[in-house]
Model the fold of this input.
Amino acid sequence: MECPYCGEELEHHDSFGRVASHQDGKVLGDIWKCPNGAEQNDSCDSEMFSVSGSFYTYRNREDYLLEGYPC
Ligand SMILES: [Zn+2]
Done:
């Protein structure tokens, strides 16, 4: 997976889903970080996101990259 803004390879940061203790533990997707956006060094527009350099995907649609953090 590459950053759509700067082309840098995205780093897998975390996964998300219904993973709190009272939930069923289903993983819904993954959180990715562009190293350039996360560093805020003016080399990637993703640093303007609410969470700098963050993208996420859903497990049922892994080629569809969304910006920021999942709600
Ligand atoms: Zn980038």
